[in-house]
Design a protein that fits this description.
Layout (H helix, E strand, L loop, with lengths): L1 E4 L8 E5 L16 E4 L25 E3 L3 E5 L12 E7 L6 E9 L10 E6 L6 E6 L8 E2 L4 E7 L8 E8 L3 E4 L2 E4 L12 E7 L4 E11 L9 E6 L6 E6 L8 E2 L4 E7 L8 E10 L4 E3 L3 E5 L12 E7 L4 E11 L10 E6 L7 E5 L8 E2 L4 E7 L8 E10 L6 E3 L3 E5 L11 E8 L5 E10 L11 E5 L8 E5 L8 E2 L4 E8 L7 E10 L5
Parallel strand pairs: 4-6, 13-15, 22-24, 31-33
Antiparallel strand pairs: 1-2, 1-3, 5-12, 6-11, 7-10, 7-12, 8-9, 8-11, 14-21, 15-20, 16-19, 16-21, 17-18, 17-20, 23-30, 24-29, 25-28, 25-30, 26-27, 26-29, 32-39, 33-38, 34-37, 34-39, 35-36, 35-38
Length: about 525
């Protein structure tokens, strides 16, 4: 027995079923595929059959292959009634890695409970045998469709009876969507140029108690005032949520973090210039674990502070102030699990954006770290905890300072530590910093330099130097002027004040210094 179907599926119409010796008449399918089945039993056999086939063009307006980034599909003769006994196949294929968005704008087909007469059939792939998304008839518009790959296969079929106006559908490259957990998303066609006149919206949702982090891996969007093409990021699930940033150009935006469990991202393009677009990675973080800070001043605390921080935390804070300014970070409290090499729980501070910059230090235990001044307008803090002990964590504040004029500080705590700018990395050129230490009345100050390396050779110290005065002013009695690699002697003030100046010239730099003071005693002399 020989059976021929008009298509590849068992439910497709049978064009003919043949046996004996009579030659069947010529057959023509309504589409580009045919299914031919030959069956023989276990008794009599014969010479069999021989078939020849040819192809012929399909009717104009009936199906086709679509490869543009967007387009329109219509039934034959739309918006007039389609013909009887038609079968049209539409194949949409976009570049690998993309997805197809299909939206029906008009739908008017003969209605039936299981759409067995006239229908539109959509499959997730390139072939009739791929996963069925839906089979549609009547006048109800199908819900928007999105492929899982770069192709959609669509069939329109009409029978021999009722005909209607048919359908109209628009397709485009899919972008946007609802995301969660960890992943990567990108602009359409990335790394190739993105399409014109496109609006893509993503909403990233994380579980309760977590926030969203966003890191751009590459970025190339038409620049200017960000009124043409742009990426907009908002702190929440909707276009009306608080704006975190609007970005264009070719500079990678800073790391962004929401304050709640959702983040909204919109990518919008106009009809002119199209660049390569962007790629971004998203993740979750414990609420209060990390942030992106752009205000001129602010506070940073470990998660849960002043209660114990959680185990297994990995938190990153990015501080970015205006160009031409530096960041001064001062710790108010500090209590982390101790280890000689800070291998368990620790806080690391880096110059710049990210942990690839110069590491200023790694800190743990109960000793409050020294105040830290960045080398430029960006600083990164990384807080990591293991699965065992935990403590109260830390609290710190930062302030933006003018890079050209301000790098000193005033201290009033009984004990503490301060360093040259960027220590232990080389201090910048052309810097003039003043440090004032003021402790309780009737107390004296003991100042001890534990590390010291400046340009110059004593006793002249004409280039880079540290100058110490016994009092609170630049006119107070001079104790000494120090440079080179020999540590200054331990200094004891006569009053409750010390004035220290650090100066660097425009040429050679070195590691600088770290100094500790103790203002808890009186009656000292050296």
């Amino acid at each position: 027995m020989l059976q021929i179907r008009d298509g590849l599926l068992l439910e497709d119409p049978v064009l003919g079923k043949y046996c004996n010796t009579a030659s069947p008449p010529p057959l023509q399918t309504t589409g580009p595929t045919a299914w031919i089945h030959f069956h023989s039993d276990f008794t009599v056999s014969d010479r069999g059959f021989h078939i020849t086939y040819t192809t012929s063009p399909s009717d104009p307006g009936c199906g086709g292959t679509f490869t543009d980034s967007e387009g329109i599909l219509i039934s034959p003769n739309w918006p007039n009634d389609y013909a009887h006994n038609r079968q049209c196949f539409y194949l949409i294929t976009l570049p690998p890695g993309e997805q197809v968005a299909l939206n029906f704008t008009n739908m008017d087909l003969e209605n039936h409970s299981d759409c067995s007469f006239d229908y539109v059939e959509v499959r997730d792939g390139r072939m009739e045998t791929d996963l069925l998304i839906g089979k549609y008839c009547g006048s109800t518009l199908p819900a928007p469709i999105r492929s899982s790959s770069n192709s959609l296969w669509i069939r329109f079929k009409s029978d021999s009876s009722v005909s209607r106006a048919g359908f109209r559908a628009a397709y485009s490259i899919a972008c946007g969507g609802i995301l969660s957990g960890t992943g990567v998303f990108r602009s359409p066609y990335h790394p190739n140029p993105y399409p014109y006149n496109k609006v893509c919206e993503w909403v990233i949702n994380q579980q309760e108690g977590y926030v969203v982090t966003l890191n751009f891996l590459s970025f190339d969007v038409e620049g200017g005032s960000c009124s043409f093409d742009f990426v907009e990021v908002r702190d929440g699930p909707s276009p009306s949520s608080t704006l975190l940033g609007k970005f264009c150009g070719d500079q990678i935006p800073p790391r962004l973090q929401s304050t709640q469990e959702s983040m909204y991202i919109q990518f919008s393009t106009d009809s002119s210039v199209n660049n390569h677009g962007f790629e971004a990675a998203y993740d979750s973080a414990i609420e209060g674990c990390g942030d992106t800070l752009t205000s001129p001043s602010g506070t940073i605390t470990s998660p849960g502070h002043p209660t114990n921080y959680p185990h297994g935390a990995n938190c990153t804070w990015y501080i970015s102030v205006l160009p031409g300014n530096l960041i001064r970070l001062v710790f108010d409290s500090f209590n982390l699990e101790y280890h000689a090499n800070c291998n368990y729980d620790y806080l690391e501070v880096y110059d710049g954006t990210g942990t690839t910059g110069n590491k200023t230090g790694r800190y743990c235990g109960r000793s409050v770290p020294p105040s830290i001044t960045s080398a430029d307008n960006q600083m990164t803090l990384l807080f990591v905890t293991d699965s065992s002990l935990s403590g109260e964590g830390f609290s710190a504040s930062y302030v933006s300072i003018n890079a050209s004029t301000d790098c000193g500080e005033s201290f009033s705590s009984p004990t503490g530590t301060f360093t040259s700018p960027s220590y232990p990395n080389n201090y910048p050129n052309s810097r003039d910093c003043t440090y004032k230490i003021i402790v309780q009345l009737n107390m004296q100050i003991m100042l001890n330099f534990t590390s010291f390396e400046l340009e110059g050779t004593p006793p002249f110290c004409s280039f880079d130097f540290v100058e110490i005065r016994d009092g609170g002013y630049e006119t107070s009695p001079l104790i000494g002027k120090f440079c080179g690699s020999q540590r200054p002697p331990v200094v004891v003030s006569h009053s409750n004040r010390l004035w220290i100046r650090f100066h660097s010239d425009p040429s050679i730099t070195s590691h600088g210094f770290i100094a500790h003071w103790d203002g808890t005693q009186t009656g000292m002399c050296l």
